[in-house]
Every structure is written in C-alpha cells, then in structure tokens.
Amino acid sequence: MRGRLLVSVSSVFSDTLGAVKTLVSDLDAEGIPVSLLVAPHIDGNWHLAKDADTKGWLLSQQEQGRALILNGFDQPAQGRRSEFATLGAHEARLRLAGSTRQMHKIGFDTDMFAPPRWRLSPGTLEVLPEFGFRLVASTKGLHDLHTGDFQQCRNLSVGEGFGAARWWRRNIIRAAERGAARGNTIRLSASGRNLLDKKVARDFQKAALAAVAKGADPGDYRDVATI
C-alpha cells in the first residue's frame, strides 16, 4: 500500500513571503503541492488585511486551486504558548468567530483548520463544526468532522515550536523515508521563518523528495475528504 505525502507551510507573511514562494515553486516543479496555513494576524503586529503583497499572493494561490488552511486567529510568535492548545469551548468559539469573519471579509474561505503548532484543545475540537469546518489537523492526526473519523498520523515539523538544527532536519528526512516505505501518511510542515535559512529550505525539500522516492503519493489536505 502506497503512503500519502502532505506538505504544508505556516507563518506566511511579509518577512517570509519570498522564501515561501521559492519553496512552493520548487516543490510544484517536482509535482508536490504545498498547503498553506494562513492566519489574519501573526504575533499581534502583522495583519493580513493590511499587507497587500501577501494578501494578493495568497488570493492568487487560492484562485489557482492551492489548498489554504486556517491557522488560528493570532498565530503566536515562537517561544509563546500555542494559541488553541488549552482553550475551552467558549474562548475557542470567540477566536474562531473573529478569525473566520475577518478572513471571509478579505476574500478567504476554507473548510480546513490547523491550530498553531498543531496543538488542539478538546474545547476547540468541540466547536469547530459550528463554523463549517470539514477537516482538522492536529499533532495527533487528522479529524474528519463530517464522519467523526480520525486518522492517527503525527506531523514532522521544522520550526513551528520544533527543531530546525541540522541534526533535527536529518531526523526529519529519515523519518519521512521510513514512514513512506511503510505506506504511512507523511505530514511534513515548516515555518516560513525557518525557510529564510536556505539550508533549512533545502533539507525540507529533501525530506519531501525522499518520501516520494520511497513511494509516497504527494497530495494536499483537501485530498483527505473521507478518512
């Protein structure tokens, strides 16, 4: 049985846009689609609605069929607690309402959600169906909110609160190879911040290519329609 490869990038904003574009273009050329994790605010200072370049590029990607995943309301800076990791249902509902409303206002609509650093509280999972979400991705795996099914598949992250050192990147490449050889679903993700380092971007691309070489079929998160 062939495995599946899902690649995603978070922290897409003014400072990282160039590096993200380069990676997306490089992997597109290899037939490996990249899902983009987007948020209306990052670190409390950057606002997607006010960044014409990033907003314009993301809208063009959406129009061209790129998979976009809502990545919270105010994606936190590295070193801070993940936004949706511990929220109860009420607070999660408020943040999701604000996020979906703001994204819709500037032209973005998606039925997929992934909390920053993939850390999902039970309260957040409880209220997500109220906002029309179909798929939720967490550290543990993929939740199909239409069927209630769950596929366990851990995420292999570079940055996003995880490592990015050379030894960590080597481990990510090896883990991607092993998982693909076993026919598992391989989820690779990177923070746009870390892609600013060309060595990190190179090794992240290597991990994706290694998974494909071991038999994983590349796709995006929309392909996980029924788990």
TrEMBL record:
Gene Ontology BP terms: carbohydrate metabolic process
Database matches in InterPro entries: DUF2334, Glyco_hydro/deAcase_b/a-brl
Pfam families in alphabetical order: DUF2334 (PF10096)
Protein name: DUF2334 domain-containing protein
Organism: Corynebacterium alimapuense
